[in-house]
Queue: 2 jobs
Job 1
Amino acid sequence: MNIGKWTIEKYNFSEEEIKLTLSHFVPKMVKENEFFLKAGEVSNYIGYVTKGLLRSYFYDDQANEITTNFFPEGSLIIVADSFNNRLPSKEYIKAIEDSELSIISYQEQMDLYKLLPAWYQICKDFGDIKISEILNRAESFQTLSASERYQKFCSEFPQLLQRVNLGYIASYIGVDNATLSRIRKKK
Amino acid sequence: MNIGKWTIEKYNFSEEEIKLTLSHFVPKMVKENEFFLKAGEVSNYIGYVTKGLLRSYFYDDQANEITTNFFPEGSLIIVADSFNNRLPSKEYIKAIEDSELSIISYQEQMDLYKLLPAWYQICKDFGDIKISEILNRAESFQTLSASERYQKFCSEFPQLLQRVNLGYIASYIGVDNATLSRIRKKK
DNA sequence: ATACGATTTTGACTTTTGTCAAAAGATTAT
DNA sequence: ATAATCTTTTGACAAAAGTCAAAATCGTAT
């Protein structure tokens, strides 16, 4: 089971353990424009995207839709605050394309902690990767101009450029729609 | 041992286990303007701040000093990328005031994993708190204006206002020095 | 192909933020 | 107390980004 960054190879699991882990996951389809999670619900699943593309977003005070993340194949979807602390989510997660996920429920995941002590380690490592990703994102906002953030987005996620609305990208990099259009125009 | 958000109370440790945990920590003083970590070094300690105030910063491409965090009493200092992946740090961590920390080395911490399986859980939970903090920070950049970010900083960290240079705050909220001065002027 | 809706671009204008350099104010060392 | 240094404020200006509304473009369903 090699799932990109989210690999469990390095934990030297036995066949047994791998089977045990995988047996706790179930497949799930999410059709284009359907929700994997709605704001107000408590996130009850971690999802690994095997196919397709989803995005997360929420509404700010002025009811603007703010895109916070894209989840193409190979992504792990965890709505950290909601899933970990059993709180209602602020975010929606919606499929941009027909998508296939492999999901594990909160409860199943708790069971795994008991059956497989390494599961804590795995989850901690996954968390560490998330931390690096978000730090990187915060740093971009802190130090880069709108146009530099767009450049960076393009080089980090070239595959997404063809697959998502520019409006989503604009909001993801924290820029007005019209401004992104102008940024793209000049070179 | 109640250390604010970073509490180990909820893990229902025995006296033994608490002693075991604490025995792995050692005290460390960092005088004003001294470094807890320098860029280029591999971060070898997690530090819990019991007294004083430190900050983390790095230099961007144009050699601007960018403040990324403040660590007053009650903070947990982990330079995630460097500590977890044993990579040289981009960041400096320097004391703004004479500070006292309680630190645990990478190795000691690894030993704790073996002696105390719950240590993984604790570290995962600490990571989850960090994730929420950084997400909150990224969201501020994504959705708030410079002056709103300053307001938010003031209400989130009122104690820091009196204790750190405005220049550090400006950089932390991603705003030019002169701009922050003007923001503060008008009301 | 046509028409509808959604997305993207454009124009004219405003507001926000940055830049640079100088002045004012604080702080520290001698 | 004074000089030297660091921090903060200010002014004049420039650049970046936002706003609003209309036009152009694209995609899809009929």
Note: Residues 24-114 of chain A form a domain with the Jelly Rolls fold (CATH 2.60.120.10).
Job 2
Amino acid sequence: MPGLAAPLIAWYRDAARDLPWRREGFGAWGTLVSEFMLQQTPVNRVVPHLEAWLTRWPTPADLAASPPGDAVTQWANLGYPRRALWLHRAAVEIRDRHDGVVPRDVDALLALTGIGDYTARAVAVFAYGDRHPVVDTNTRRVLARAVEGRAQPGPPNRRDLEAMEAELPADIAEAAIVNAAAMELGAIVCTARAPKCEACPLAAQCAWRAAGYPASEDRRRKQATYEGSDRQTRGAVLKTLREAAPAAVPAFAIIPEWPDAAQRDRAIDSLIADGLVEAVDDHLRLPGHPAS
DNA sequence: GACACGTGGAT
DNA sequence: TATCCAAGTGT
């Protein structure tokens, strides 16, 4: 089986999008913030928020010095607001454990709040130029198709890292490009729906294409309905508090017209349990500095 | 390993 | 309109 590296590198040189975190000297903190924002949120929605974030908090210490609620407010409507809280915690950890410098070591990165297998290696590779396999959902789909001949990848697995490692050149700089190129291909060519196979640099060697594009076995779980969900309820509560911040809001004024009052109250309790909301007297607000 | 966790654009 | 999908992580 011929490797994917050479055609990916050649394709990426011409096809890569011009994205902020690919600019020369973007910095490890910028890379880290971008990766947090990109966890399950599309690129086009991230870009403007990323620039505003880095203008307000140019270093981890700057963010760590602000109350966590400010991070939740600045996060705005990017979704999964716990990521804002985790990013704030990671900034505190970086300040306290790493002298304010984003660590380079993968294990040190993995020890930070909100950083898992993907983000840790993305920072080590894209910010610091080290050699590791970086595997996101795009890469998993590219490998599933080009190498395994399947329409969709199976569930995430630690073997994914080994599968990508097998495609990386020994050269450190080239390995980084192959990581980025596999993600980019999955994002703009080898897409989940309507892949552009006629424009794919791997078409000649794609196992899925060679097998006649067999359909996936479709064991994927359907995404839960959002309308009427607890997630929607939490989102509505938090939106109210973001828009009022930094002021606290009387508890009775939190989405008072919500159809299911019990669901609303459960959402508030779960947000408090998650540390996204604080209760003070009969008011709610986004979290301030912890009492010392 | 399954599940919870936001939000908005595309089909 | 309903469903799918998006640079994942923690429990």
Note: The radius of gyration of chain A is 21 Å.
